[in-house]
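Sharing in case it's useful to others searching the archive later.

Someone asked me privately for the predicted structure of Methyltransferase domain-containing protein, so I'm posting the question and my answer publicly. Question first, with the sequence:
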Amino acid sequence: MAGQVQLDEGVLDYVRSVSLRDDEILRDLVNETAFMPSLNAMVTMPEEGQLLALLVGLTGASRVLEVGTFTGYSTLCMARALPPGGQIVTCDISARWTKIARRYWERAQVADRIELRLGDGAESMAALLAEHGPETFDLVFVDADKTGYARYYEEALTHLRPGGLVVLDNTLYFGRVADPEAHDADTEAIRALNAALHVDSRVELSLLPMADGITLARKNKAQ
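And my answer, the predicted structure tokens:
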């Protein structure tokens, strides 16, 4: 049985050359974020944005919830994949970075599919639950503060319909989760979540070793 391919820059460049289908708007957003040296690691990788769009289509999602917007790359990718009448609600604490996101959403003509909620992510999720009730979303994407992931995950399961999908970004956390010397709060939080997910019978599970680790957790359908 073949082992895991080592994904050096040459292999990654090849993968992108034969599979990535981004466009000028997405490239411009990536390039604008690249001029923020301390923050450019926060932008969604183009191949991950394309995967998110594919997952929206595969799940037939018409209502998507996102926790963590930043400059709106993943939001834009998912919004484009929505069917007519679909909506994505995206939550973030930063008016500064989401101002950039709004500009690109308008340029891509998907702003009417996106509802931005500014404020604490958990509080925004609680407000949505109070407004719409449980099980009203088809897909939830989490890419926010790592110490909040466990709470966001539990909230996501409440918001998801049976058969809905939670997508969690950064679940390898720069490889630090496998480093026994790494004990910072973010790494410990992701480690603990990964361990909890492994034994969570409420979901089907797969951790994809791409980008910075992407976990897919599909909520079991009602028996």
